[in-house]
Design brief:
Elements lengths: L10 H4 L7 H12 L4 H9 L8
């Protein structure tokens, strides 16, 4: 399952009543997970196929 704003730490509170760009979303999710999510987001947001689950 792709990360959502609920799983991305402080994002929902920090950007309440505002906007966050794609780069900000990716950075928040990587910070929260402690992982490099570039492959996931590259596939999910910019690729032609859905990311693998599991």
């Amino acid at each position: 399952m792709p990360p959502s704003s609920a799983s991305c730490g402080r994002g929902p509170g920090e950007y309440r009543h505002g906007n966050a760009g794609t780069g900000q979303l990716i950075a928040l999710c990587e910070e929260t997970s402690g992982k490099d999510l570039s492959e996931l987001f590259g596939t999910w947001l910019f690729g032609e196929k859905k990311p693998a689950q599991g």
